[in-house]
Amino acid sequence: MNLLKDDVSQLIKKLAIPASVGTLFQTLYTLVDTFYAGKISPEALSALSKSFPIYFLIIATSIGVTVAGTSLIGSSIGEKNDKNVLFRRASNRCFIYCNFNYIFHIW
Hints:
Elements: H1 8-40, H2 42-78, H3 83-106
Helix pairs in contact: 1-2, 2-3
């Protein structure tokens, strides 16, 4: 996969299909949880309905940090920056991701 020479529509397909499948499986996981929790009791179903927004907030934040970090690293590679800049951007991304993880686990 060459981002500079390949056709844009083919690149979008190669990148978007795996992301869409991942999102589909996350949604199916949520639906299966809802189905089986509904069989247990209405209280279990209401507990899931209260936790789903938090779950999707965590997922969206993780995806956002990953996409932002990847685009910064990609722009550094495109600018032909030295390895120290790439390492700093990658380590900043890991630091931010670990902080979000810590905050969400305590919350």
